[in-house]
Write a structure and sequence with these properties.
By secondary structure, the protein is α/β, with parallel strands linked by helices.
């Protein structure tokens, strides 16, 4: 059933977008379907897959957390700034696609781009949500913006226009899909929050006056609100790819888009490769939405054995490893998956051949609840276990030396491909979003944990295929021209 869930979702939204006028669901100038569609995904996930160990906090708890996060940032202002400043380029992270390197957090995908831009003389404004500190670079805490949006909400109300809403609800009901997120009252709350956040972010944009605005995971946090605020000002909003797509991702394929696109979708999608860009450009009109294959921002130096930065990380890996091993295996933990599976994996690791070395890497979004989920794994000790180094080294620095990746259903599998490292998924649901990796021979599913060790033992040695180094500077220069044309497009609309 889990495998069918992802395919069912993609088929459902494709039919909805083809048959019904959801592209015209609006609240004022804000298109609602992009976020409603993401909420529908979560509805379907809870119905068909779910996570019995996950507990959604109450509205009161969520409100308290929203208020508490700015206070927490005030208490830990290590490299945190509280006011926006003038900038040529703005980057809004998702707070999850991050790594802690030498004691400071940095955005995995934003930091390499910002470094190139600053090297060319651009002024940059880095923004992140959450309580993390310290950051490697001055970072605007966007939790204050989310809090300000609550104050602005009553001022930005706009009527809902939901053509074919009843028909969509009836269609989903006949498909056996419970969709509480699509109820009119839920959509009204969603619209109000979206518009308020866009208004608050607009104040930041008016101060910074950037010509480009980047984000990761456009459908999470403030990403969609940033796209709307940018659209209102003719600023090119760019979503930087953060995980594998393969033409199957829930947020990057659309069957129906209006004549002037979606105001709440980014204008441009920066992808890791040409195949993902082609999949997006197959539905995008090339004006309001388009894709650019700019390359994976993080991988470049790690694909070059002669790069001094890579050589330095190689030395740090050797120090953490402490010698050779028959196999080095990365276990990429996630915030999903039942404890029973992780416990069973811990048992298999404990009984694995003594010459194998296991690098157990915590997910950057993991909290205390996830540590309880992974308690048995995190309690493993011994000469073949590497816990702290697995999270302290950049992911590509690890992948260069791995023989395999094991995960529940992690996108790390795709990032391992340029290094020739095969991936094993413990969840059958991984064939939904990552089926293209399995079809290409880069990954396979192992749901029988008793087969895990034999499968790993049978894998051939990792062999890195030829892989061009992304030219980030070239991609960024192409963005400048696209941004100029986009400003003119918005001015004429």
């Amino acid at each position: 059933m889990a495998t069918l869930f992802h395919a069912q979702y993609l088929a459902l939204v494709a039919e909805i977008e083809t048959r019904f006028a959801v592209s015209r669901w609006t609240s004022g100038d804000a298109h609602l379907w992009p976020l409603a569609r993401m909420d529908l995904y979560l509805d379907l996930y809870r119905q068909h897959v779910g996570d019995p160990e996950a507990r959604r906090p109450s509205r009161i708890a969520r409100g308290m957390r929203t208020l508490a996060q700015p206070l927490a940032m005030l208490a830990r202002r290590d490299n945190v700034i509280l006011r926006p400043h003038r900038a040529d380029v703005l980057f809004l992270g998702d707070g999850v696609s991050v790594e802690r390197i030498d004691g400071a957090w940095e955005d995995r995908y934003g930091e390499p781009l910002l470094a190139v831009l600053e090297g060319d003389g651009a002024r940059c404004l880095h923004m992140q949500p959450g309580r993390r500190a310290p950051w490697a670079r001055p970072t605007l805490a966007v939790d204050f913006i989310a809090s300000a949006a609550r104050v602005l909400a009553p001022l930005v109300r706009a009527p809902l226009d939901l053509p074919h809403h009843a028909e969509v609800a009836d269609f989903l009901a006949r498909q056996g899909v419970a969709a509480p997120s699509l109820r009119p009252e839920r959509l009204a709350r969603r619209a109000l929050g979206l518009r308020a956040r866009a208004q608050a972010l607009g104040l930041v944009l008016d101060i910074a006056q950037p010509r480009l605005a980047f984000t990761t995971t456009w459908y999470a946090g403030l990403g969609s609100a940033l796209a709307l605020a940018c659209r209102r000002r003719g600023i090119l909003s760019v979503d930087v790819q953060h995980c594998p797509q393969g033409g199957r991702h829930k947020a990057y394929g659309w069957a129906g888009v209006g004549a002037q696109g979606y105001t709440t979708l980014p204008a441009l999608f920066w992808t890791w490769d040409a195949a993902d860009a082609a999949a997006i450009n197959a539905w995008a009109d090339g004006y309001w939405h388009q894709a650019l294959a700019g390359g994976h921002p993080r991988l470049g130096p790690f694909l070059d054995d002669a790069d001094p930065r890579t050589q330095a990380w190689d030395e740090r890996f050797r120090q953490a490893a402490g010698g050779d091993a028959q196999r080095d295996i990365l276990v990429a933990l996630q915030t999903t998956g039942p404890s029973a599976i992780w416990d069973a994996l811990a048992d298999r690791i404990a009984a694995a051949p003594p010459g194998w070395r296991w690098w157990i890497r915590r997910h950057p979004a993991a909290g205390p609840g996830d540590d309880r989920r992974h308690a048995r794994l995190l309690a493993l000790r011994g000469p073949t276990i590497r816990l702290e180094p697995a999270s302290a080294l950049p992911l590509p620095a690890l992948l260069r030396h791995m023989d395999a990746v094991v995960s529940w259903a992690s996108g790390v599998a795709a990032e391992a491909v340029p290094f020739g490292v095969p991936a094993l998924f413990l969840s059958a649901d991984a064939t939904g979003p990552f089926g293209h990796l399995a079809q290409a021979g880069h990954a396979r599913v192992v749901t029988d944990l008793d087969a895990l060790i034999p499968t790993l033992a049978a894998l051939p040695p990792a062999s890195r295929p030829p892989c061009p180094t992304p030219d980030l500077r070239l991609g960024l220069r192409r963005l400048e021209g696209i941004a100029a044309r986009y400003r003119a497009l918005c001015a004429d609309a």
